[in-house]
Write a structure and sequence with these properties.
Strand content: under 5%
Radius of gyration: 24 Å
Number of helices: 14
Shape: elongated
Number of strands: 0
Distance between the termini: 31 Å
Structural class: mainly alpha
Largest sheet: none
Number of domains: 2
Order of helices and strands: HHHHHHHHHHHHHH
Amino acid sequence: MISRRILRIKILQLLYAYFQGADSSINKHEKELFFSIQKTYDLYHYMLLLIIDLADYANARIEVALQKKIPTREDLNPNTKFVDNQIIHQLRINRQLNQYLNTNRLSWVNSPELIKKLHNRVRMTSYFKEYMEDPARDYEQDKKLIIEIFTSEIINTEGIYQTLEEQSIYWNDEIEFVISMIARTLKGFKSEDAEDAQLLSLFKNDDDKAFAHDLFRKAIVNKEEYSKLIESFTENWDVDRIAFIDMLILVLAITEATSFPSIPTRVTLNEYLEIAKFYSTEKSSVFINGLLDKIFKHLKDENKIVKTGRGLIGEV
C-alpha cells in the first residue's frame, strides 16, 4: 500500500530529524521510520472505519425520528438505502478490518462533531440526493457513492485535518494519499467477497520494505562523501547557502541512483524534483534538477551509476 513516493518522503523527514537532533543512533531513527510507516497504515484503517461510523450516525438519526411523539410520514417510513449500503456492510463485517481495528484500538468515539459535519455535508450533495431517490439497490451504485464520499467530501470536511493531526503528528499530510488508496481498495471489492474482501497490505512487496531500510541507512553512511561531491559541482555557489533540506534531497537522490540498480535514474530524478516542490521551493527544484543532471552524468562516466534489468542496461 505504501508507495515509494511516501517512503522517500518519510525517509527525508527522518534524515532531517537524525542530522538535526542530538541522538545519533541509527537504529533508533530507523525504528522511528518504520513506526511512521505503520502509522500511515493505521490511518488507512481508521478512515475506512469513518464511513461505517457515518452510516451509524445516519441510522441513529432515523431511530431518534421514530421516537418522536408526533412522527411525520417520512419519520415512519425512513429511507435506509444509505445505512444499508452494501459496501459499508462489507466493511462492517470485514475480517481484516475488524481484526486491525480491535488490535490497534482505533475509534472515532471522541469525534462526534466531525461525523455530524460530514453527514450534513454529504446529505446536501446532489449525487447523494440522487442516490437516495433512486429505488434501485445496485452494488456498483453503492460502491460509486462510497468512493465519491471519500474523494469529494471526507477529504474536504472542515476539521478533518486538525482532528487527525491532534491524534497523530504522522497524519498531518497523508490523508490525500490514504484516501486514494481507499478508493483503489474499494474499486477491487466484489459482492461475492463478503467478509473476505481484500484490503491492501502495508508494503506492496518485500522489495519496498528493503528499499526503505537500505535507502535510509545508506544515505546516513554516505552523507559526508556525497556532500563533498555536491560541493565540487557548486564551485560558483556558496554551499552554505544551500538549504539543509535541499542538501538532504540531493544526498537521497544520489544514494538512490548509485545504490538501486533496478530504478531508472529518470525515475529517481523526477521523484526528488516533485518532493523538492512540496518540501522546498520552486527555485530549489530548478537548482536541484540542474545539479543532479551534472552529478548523475559524472557518476555514470565513473561507472558509479550502473543500471541492470530489463530495459535498463546502458541507460543514458
